[in-house]
Amino acid sequence: MTALRSGVSRTTLALPLLLFGVLALAAPNFLAPQNLANVVGQITALLIVSLGQLLVALVAGIDLSVGSVMSLAGCLVATQPDPLWGMVLALLLGLAVGIANGLGVAVAGIHPLIMTLATATFLQGLAYLVLPIPGGEVAPALRSLADGSLWGVPQPLLWCALCAALVYGLLHRSRLGLHLFAVGAQARSAQLNGVRVVGVTVAAYVGCSLLAVVAGVYLAARVASGDPTMGASFGLESVTAVALGGVQLTGGVGSILGVLTGALSLGLITNGINLFGISPFLRGALTGALLLAAVCSQRRKVVGL
Amino acid sequence: MSAELTGNGMLAAPPWRRLLRGALALPPAYAGMLVLLALAALLRPQLLSAMLLPLIARQAAPLGLAVIGQSLVMRARSIDLSSGGVIVAVSYLLTSGYFQVSDAVAMGLCVVLGLVVGVVNGVLIVQARASSMIVTLAVSMILTGIVVALSQFRAPGDAPEFLRELARLRVWGMPLPVLVWLGALLPAALLLKRTVYGRSLAAVGSNPQAAALSGLPHLRVVFIGHVASALISVLCGFILVGFVGKGSITLGQDLALNSLAAAILGGVNFGNGRGGMAGPAVAAFMLTFLFNFLTSLGLGEPGRLMLQGAIIAAAALAYSLNRR
After folding, report:
1. Looking at the partner chain, which of A122, A132, A303 has a beta carbon nearest the beta carbon of B129?
2. B11 pLDDT exceeds 60?
3. How far is it, in rounded angstroms, from Cα B135 to Cα A288?
């Protein structure tokens, strides 16, 4: 039954390969090393934040606040003179947001969409407060981590690999991972079998927020400055990537491979839009359409929220 | 020791307790409005002047209308966050001059657009069973993306003259949009209390499965709610475009979130039959008044967003704790 639990199907695997093939044939510049490095750099943030979204989706939740968390983390790093202190602040922020979201969902019983929409709005305001207009400066030490390459490997790839390995260890080499799947598949049964549902849910939201912080720090380090709206589009984009990757938003089904294919597909589409000279503003419309397609293919039992 | 037994054997609470419980069961918007009015009377009495209050009410009218649509879908355990995209599209259709048509035809196109958006939302939510929040957010994203991409090539123009006239018009000293809003409340309340649709809505909201098993057209009820909500968004778009007098791609962007907050504050919540139309209306006015009040105290955009988030979270929290 492992095939079922991973959610990876032929279509989820074929989509990025197909996109890659089409772009390689139709866009002459696509295979240029410069462009490929660009694609990797663009996908990294999306992949990291989507890995976080995976954790939450596994427990049948959703986190729309990741975008604001990314923006705020970027603003914090860009406004703190000491990069280490900025990182610590940003991670503490992620911890607090995750705990708040998790408690709101698991203890107070607020619908995850409403809860995370509320925190997303709140944190967006906080981001404007920290950094009203794009600016600030990310410390050079941090910037060098997001660009260039180490031992011949582009640094962004290392960020991806590190985060994926972390999530892999969490999901498949720890007790918490098993509990995440159990809670998402059937929370009541998990509870009766002695799984602490509240703790597991809170842990999922904390993990998601922390990964969003990492994605935000990476993005800020890449562009070398902060922007209070930097992450705004990532909230729904990460949901799109996760849904495209075959992760069931109703919980219990999903895998890192699926998230990778989803993020890759979305990233390749973005790159295609750039290469073909289509208006970048249509990217939002296209993401929306993809999101609709991905979500509608996952038929649920309930109608509504 | 004068407690008496009620019919089901429970001890009846003393009167003051019953009163307190009754007050707690009221929508939070009422208490909030009272506190807010008292604070305003103390700190910014000029906000309560006969000149400013109608203006604030006029500003609240689009939100008040939007929350009618929002509360319809929320009663059926759904949500509509597409109003931002619909309003931007309406603004573009009315002001860009992209389609060389008369104003009346342009407004007709807007209504058609609203109908299409409502039907798309409804079909995807009801037939494909997709999450209504994700569907309506995605639809809003698609509309906004298309409009922004299109408006690169064409600067937004002026709003139709008669919409601007209507937005400025006053009848018996009250701005026309406020009258439209108040006029819409009564039929909406009657729709909830007196019609088959209203009763079905309450039934579907409180238990969709039971409603379906009882033979209620529970999918159609959700569907109609979404179409109505999208059409109301178009009406809000007309009013907002009339206010501003120009096309804009940032028009009405906070309406979706504010209508959600106002509906919850007004005592409407997902899938329970409680809350009429008065609570959300008071909440819409309260939120608008609150933002004006806080602006007069020097609160900027960051504070407004933080407050919005905090209000949604607090209202949802209060509701879910109350439910226990």
Report:
1. A303
2. no
3. 9
Nearby residues of B249 by Cβ (< 8 Å), 6 or more positions away = B88, B91, B92, B144, B147, B148, B151, B156
3-state helix, strand, coil in chain B (%, to 5): 75, 0, 25
Q: What is the DSSP string of A227-288?
A: -TTTTTTHHHHHHHHHHHTT--TTSS---HHHHHHHHHHHHHHHHHHHHTT--TTHHHHHHH
Q: How many domains does chain B have?
A: 1
Q: Provide the ipTM.
A: 0.86
Q: Summarize pLDDT for B92-148 with one digit per residue, the tens.
A: 888 877 777 788 888 999 999 999 999 999 999 998 888 888 899 999 999 999 988
* Beta carbons of A304 and B222 less than 8 Å apart: yes
- Looking at beta carbons, which residues of chain B come within 8 Å of A125? 301-309
Q: Domain for residue B34, yes or no?
A: no
What share of residues in chain A are helix, strand, coil (percent, to 5)?
70, 0, 25
Query: B260 lies in which domain range?
Result: 50-323
CB pairs under 8 A between A and B: 169
Residue contact B312–A109, C-beta within 8 A: no
Domain ranges of chain A: 45-236
**Cβ pair A282, B146 in contact under 8 A:** yes
CATH of residue B110's domain is: 1.10.3470
Contact B257 A113 (CB under 8 A): no
CB distance from A168 to chain B under 8 Å?
no
Domain assignment present for residue B21? The answer is no
Asked whether residue B189 is domain-assigned, the answer is yes
- The residue-averaged pLDDT of B160-186 equals 85
Q: Measured between alpha carbons, how far is residue B16 from residues A173, B13, B20, B27, B28 in Å?
A: 57, 8, 6, 19, 19
